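User:
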Amino acid sequence: MSGRVLIRLCDPDDPAKLHEAFAAVGWDKPVALFERYLHEHAAMSRHLLLAEVDGTVAGYVTLVWKSEYPPFAEEGIPEVSDLNVLPRFRRSGIASGLLDQIEQAAAQRSSVVGLGVGLYADYGAAQRIYVRRGYIPDGRGVMYENQPVPAGETVPLDDDATLMFTKQIDRHP
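Assistant: Predicted structure:
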């Protein structure tokens, strides 16, 4: 991929742009989702970054300051949430750039950042990038809707089945 990559905070015009870009590839990312993210960003409960290539939406990432995952919430670990890069921009460093900047934001408040990653094949690229970047499983096993899955239990293998990871980062208050 060639072109100028810009990673920036989202602005009020971006929810519609994000929705259109993801709808064009068949992903259900409603405008209301991005409007909520933008509202939460303004309320300082979420950090929202957009990646563009030559002015075209390429992806986004959010960081929630108070995770819904109880161990992260109890330990004050911010959680990377909802990282997505459009297929045509993958394997070009966009996800790494988004993660670089969201980790820098997390470092303003914490020396650890966390995330959850899905367990089925669609998450394979995400699983690999997180491990390459130094994220390690938190050791609590498989979660379903942020709750532990007891041994022998059966849960759907969908987006709510995750393995939670953490990474040590240099804190920059």
